[in-house]
Amino acid sequence: MAHCARNLAPEELPETVVRKYCACMADIGEEAEMLTWSQTELERSYPPAHVQCHEEARG
Asked: How far apart, in whole angstroms, are the C-alpha atoms of residue 18 and residue 22?
């Protein structure tokens, strides 16, 4: 989850949004594998999940 938060840092999102988004995405795939990915790679690998988590986090 810390890796996800670091990847999102440049977007300057509220901490609650980052926490919700990263928690949601952590439930999607293999966390060990995902730790090596950039945010762009993660979003491209799980496009429907990315959109869903993005909407939930900002909702």
From this structure: 6
